[in-house]
Write a structure and sequence with these properties.
The complex is a heterodimer of chains A (334) and B (621).
Chain A: H1 23-38, E1 45-49, E2 64-67, H2 73-83, E3 88-94, H3 95-101, H4 103-112, E4 117-122, E5 125-126, E6 132-133, H5 157-164, E7 168-173, H6 179-189, E8 194-199, H7 219-222, E9 223-226, E10 233-234, E11 240-245, E12 250-255, H8 261-264, H9 273-280, E13 289-296, H10 302-309, H11 317-324, E14 329-332
Parallel strand pairs in A: 1-2, 1-3, 3-4, 4-8, 7-8, 9-13
Antiparallel strand pairs in A: 5-6, 7-13, 10-11, 11-12
Chain B: E1 17-25, H1 30-43, E2 47-53, E3 68-76, E4 87-92, H2 95-101, E5 105-114, H3 120-126, E6 142-146, H4 148-157, H5 163-168, H6 170-181, H7 187-196, H8 201-221, E7 239-245, H9 246-261, E8 265-269, H10 276-283, E9 290-294, H11 298-310, E10 314-319, H12 321-337, E11 341-347, H13 364-369, E12 378-380, H14 387-402, E13 405-411, H15 412-416, E14 418-422, E15 468-470, H16 485-502, E16 518-525, H17 529-541, E17 546-551, E18 553-555, H18 561-566, E19 568-575, H19 581-589, E20 594-597, H20 606-620
Parallel strand pairs in B: 1-4, 4-5, 5-6, 8-9, 8-10, 10-11, 11-13, 12-13, 16-17, 16-19, 19-20
Antiparallel strand pairs in B: 1-3, 2-3, 7-14, 12-18
Helix pairs in contact in B: 1-6, 2-3, 4-8, 6-8, 7-8, 9-10, 9-14, 11-12, 17-20
The chains are: A alpha/beta (334), B alpha/beta (621).
């Protein structure tokens, strides 16, 4: 493309049907901005989704889009990649789509390392079916299906992905308009399956579920942006840090008043599966929530590995004839 | 020795044909023995149909009745339509095999048993009180006792084979014996052994040695010397033939579709009996035209196939009943999104796990109606293993031309049975090139072709044609989401009409045997072809006014079907289910068709259909 693309090039004429104030608006804007920066022609980009609020995403991005059935988007997208490995394929789903009904497909897309960019829009609630608790809802979530509060322990998407063998896992939030495109750009650059968990607010059924960490005013105190090669320091004044105990896999908080945190904090290594596990387990309380590229340790993607073993060739008539005549033939005269 | 002339009345094998059945433990190599014998029969110019009849257990406890694996073949000429109602020669490798298979042997038939396996321990395992060979009932047959195990060891031990190799070679010893009995050449099989076991020289030596020894034994003892003359040559059109099973024919059919369309075919599947052979067969093509994808489950398999079609490949999937049930929701998506898709259902006995290795035709109504909403698909049903090649080309042609899912209803019998197949001239195969839309002028994804009603197909990567499709109803005039009441009615009508129009593109139905009108029309579909055709052949020869009409296109039903049905006084519909096509015929045409139904996991016998037909004809007199 000679012409510089803008977010407008990735905007359709479709009226957006999310609730006013929904976190998805910010995510779709960040996505358009990212796509424009990446610069792939819209006709070489495809969005595949399942069912749910998040799954409406393809209608608002001017690319090829396929709004499929609940939970199966990673499988549909895998097939799309088999057909045309050159496409930029993005898969969008919510926490119900990706971790409940479609948990199996997400698991296998990640372990196969198919070159898909998987965006998990996690609002910890079922929005489109009017507010039931989801597999990522905190225990005690009161919802129409759990009037006394839920009792299940929630799934942690990053830990799930690490367990599935994903080679790229990142986390961001709808409220971080600068951070989110950075993470999406990294996900796109990673060849293989890339999972991005986007913490998202559901203003109608689960307002404020991510608490202060997703709030502009408090995010710096309640979340840490892990960065490869840099000490794990956070806070508005950079006065807090984290130290990973590699014996126990636990993370502890250090503060500037006890000595310079930048010198004492563990230097983050995004290729370390152990560090990724340690920071993925931080879910509020005394420690911040980790955002950024939590794990990136590239391995050969599925299609590349497959083509190295068996290059694809179109079958011509001579190949076909050889096949038809294989395995013992006899001829009967007229 | 002499084989007595058939004594029992219902002998549908007649003189030009022979039915041989091998039966032994699952570990005895009966299926290899049978398929090698079938190959040799074909190479000797016979027509044939085989029936591999094996248990669901991989290796059931040795010597038990539920571990018995059998392989039946009818061969000869001028035409062979079924694997035979009754067996002329039964080879039983142990007492359990005798117990479970003796009923198939005709009175006067030849029974060969491996005496070495007829031990007290094995009698007990098979549930015999004493030695079954001493039972007077065996007097009705010609019994030939050979210690095949010992004879095999004699032959191969001298070559330094281990005990295990010797035990395992007895199927080849028996094959050598039957090769002698029917005057067969051993060369093809010896070559096959060499290539099959190329990595283990000692196995090649043991198996070849056993084959030669069995042959020599037959020659020395002059076993069955009079049998060789019986089977006739096939009366088949000139051409080059090979023996083929339904699954292999389907694999080749998809390869041909890839060649004729110039497209990539993505076969996405999850292992399930008895459909897995399709995945194995296609995987062997090593990504020439067809790529295979073993998905994590049945739903992912069909979803990936749909994704592949969205991407501009031809997505295909295959399974059996339980798996097809899981695919139903996604198949509905393919109907709504109007994408090409082929779904092969190798039907097996149900419900639930049912009888996994046994055939049934009980998924017809699921194929017709087993999706939520009004979700019509095209449905084709091959009648014989050889037809499985063309049916896949037809399925691809319909799927691409009409932008629709096409279900291919095979069954466990067609999948595994083998028959001769005339190899087509590759230059005569149709051009299946897809009609991809590239012109952006006035494009929307639900613009329809006036004749076929197929929607425009623009694939990702095509500049300027970005669009969105999905499971939500689309506006007929712009392709955008639409909740308009009238639009849903219109789109439902379009989807139905599109399927209905396929019939105009396909041959009208004619009888497979008999006249276009008469006293009784016998209507079948799928793998009951041979039994119905054989029965009608015999009935016509006996002077009855009967015809065989075989439906190969279940949806839309073929043009001319109703008129043809109305031209017979009575209609009989034999099916391996509790009455599904008969229900369609009655519902569609208000014709008072009668069903003949059987769900035993076994194919129909010619005799059963003949009896039912005669009863209807008699009642009408």
């Amino acid at each position: 493309m000679n012409q510089q693309l803008t977010a407008k090039n990735f905007t359709t004429d479709q009226e957006v049907r999310w609730c006013p104030g929904c976190g998805d608006y910010a995510i779709v804007n960040a996505m358009r901005k990212t796509l424009a920066q990446i610069g792939t022609d819209p006709s070489d980009v495809a969005f595949v989704s399942g069912i749910g609020c998040a799954a409406r995403f393809p209608y608002y991005i001017d690319s090829y889009g396929f709004h499929t059935v609940h939970g199966r988007a990673p499988a549909v997208a895998s097939g799309l990649k088999l057909a045309n490995p050159e496409l930029d394929v993005w898969v969008v789903g919510g926490d119900g789509d990706f971790l409940s009904i479609g948990g199996n497909h997400l698991f296998h897309a990640l372990r196969r390392n198919i070159d898909l960019n998987l965006l998990l829009l996690n609002n910890a609630i079922y929005g489109l079916t009017k507010g039931q608790y989801s597999p990522t809802s905190p225990p005690g979530t009161r919802s129409p299906s759990t009037p006394a509060g839920s009792v299940d322990r929630p799934a942690n998407a990053v830990l799930f992905a690490l367990g599935a063998g994903a080679r790229f896992i990142a986390r961001s939030a709808d409220t971080l308009p600068n951070h989110l495109p950075e993470v999406l750009t990294r996900a796109h650059a990673h060849k293989g399956a890339s999972l991005v968990e986007i913490l998202q607010n559901c203003i109608v059924y689960n307002d404020g579920v991510w608490g202060g960490m997703a709030d502009k005013t408090t995010t710096q105190e309640l979340s840490i942006r892990v960065t490869h090669g840099e000490p794990m320091v956070y806070g508005k004044e950079n006065d807090k840090g984290l130290v990973i105990d590699f014996e126990t896999g636990t993370v502890s908080l250090i503060v500037e008043s006890d000595g310079p945190v930048a010198e004492r904090a563990t230097v983050y290594d995004e290729t370390s599966w152990v560090m990724a596990n340690a920071v993925a387990r931080m879910e509020g309380q005394d420690v911040p929530t980790a955002i950024g590229v939590i794990y990136c340790d590239p391995a050969e993607d599925y299609i590349t590995s497959l083509r190295e073993k068996i290059p694809f060739h179109q079958m011509n008539k001579s190949d076909l004839k050889d096949l038809l005549y294989a395995g013992g033939t006899w001829t009967k005269g007229a | 020795m002499n084989i007595q002339a058939p004594q029992a009345a219902p002998d549908h094998t007649q003189t030009g044909r022979m039915v041989v059945r091998f039966a032994g433990d699952s570990g005895d190599g009966v299926q290899i023995l049978g398929s090698e014998f079938a190959k040799s029969s074909a190479l000797n110019g016979h027509d044939l149909i085989t029936f591999p009849d094996f248990p669901a257990e991989i290796r059931a406890p040795v010597g038990t009745t539920f571990g018995v694996s059998a392989y039946q073949i009818q061969f000869g000429g001028p035409l062979v339509l079924t694997h035979g109602d009754e067996v002329d020669v039964l080879i039983a490798f142990n007492p359990a095999a005798l117990k479970t298979n003796l009923h198939s042997l005709r009175i006067g038939g030849l029974l060969i048993i491996d005496e070495g396996a007829f031990t007290k321990r094995n009698f007990k395992k098979a549930g015999y009180e004493g030695d079954p060979l001493e039972d007077e009932a065996l007097g009705k047959y010609q019994l030939l006792k050979i210690d095949i195990t010992a004879r095999t060891h004699e032959a191969v031990d001298a070559m330094g084979a281990s005990k295990k190799q010797g035990d395992r070679a007895k199927n080849f010893w028996a094959l050598g014996l039957v090769f002698w009995m029917f005057g067969r050449d051993r060369k093809e099989t010896l070559d096959w052994i060499k290539s099959k076991f190329a990595k283990a020289e000692e196995v090649v030596a043991a198996n070849s040695g056993a084959l030669n020894a069995g042959h020599a034994y037959g020659e020395t003892m002059e076993i069955g010397a009079d049998l060789a003359a019986r089977p006739q040559q096939a009366d088949m059109p000139a051409g080059t033939y090979r023996a083929i099973t339904g699954l292999d024919a389907m694999s080749l059919g998809l390869a041909a579709a890839a060649t004729c369309s110039g497209m990539k075919i993505a076969y996405c599947s999850y292992p399930i009996t008895p459909a897995t052979g399709l995945l194995h067969g296609l995987a062997k093509f090593q990504a020439k035209g067809v790529i295979t994808f073993q998905a994590e489950d049945e739903i992912a398999a069909v979803a990936a196939a749909i994704g592949a079609s969205f991407g501009g490949a031809l997505g295909t999937t295959g399974s059996s009943g339980p798996g097809i049930a899981l695919k139903a929701e996604a198949m509905g998506l393919a109907v709504a999104a109007e994408l090409p898709l082929i779904v092969v259902n190798v039907q097996r006995a149900g419900p639930s796990t049912g009888l996994p290795t046994k055939a049934e035709q009980s998924d017809l109504l699921m194929a017709m109606y087993g999706r939520h909403g009004e979700a019509p698909c095209a449905i084709l049903a091959p009648a014989t293993p050889a037809e499985c090649f063309q049916v896949m080309i037809d399925a691809a042609e319909i799927a691409l031309k009409y932008m629709t899912p096409v279900i291919v209803l095979a069954d466990g019998y067609i999948a595994n049975a083998a028959e001769p197949w005339k190899i087509p001239d590759v230059d005569s195969l149709p051009d299946l090139s897809p009609n991809f839309r590239t012109d952006p002028e006035g494009f929307h994804p639900f613009q329809r072709d006036e004749k076929t009603l197929a929607r425009a197909w623009a694939i990702p990567g095509t500049p300027g044609l970005q669009h969105r499709i999905g499971g939500i109803e689309r506006g007929a005039n712009d392709g955008h989401i639409s909740y308009e009441p009238e639009n849903h009615q219109d789109m439902t009508n379009f989807r139905a009409e599109k399927i209905a129009r396929i019939a105009d593109d396909r041959p009208a139905i004619t009888p497979d045997r008999g006249n276009t009108s008469g006293k009784l029309g016998i209507v079948g579909w799928g793998s009951t072809f041979g039994a119905i055709n054989g029965a009608v052949n015999e009935l016509i020869k006996a002077g009855e006014d009967v015809a065989h009409i075989h439906v190969r296109q279940m949806s839309p039903l073929p043009n001319g079907f109703e008129d043809l049905l109305r031209s017979y006084d009575q209609i009989l519909v034999p099916e391996m289910n509790m009455g599904q096509l008969v229900k369609l015929v009655r519902a569609e045409y208000l014709i008072d068709a009668k069903g003949l139904n059987q769900v035993t996991g076994k194919p129909f016998k010619v005799g059963k259909i003949k009896d039912a037909a005669l009863e209807m004809l008699g009642a009408a007199k």
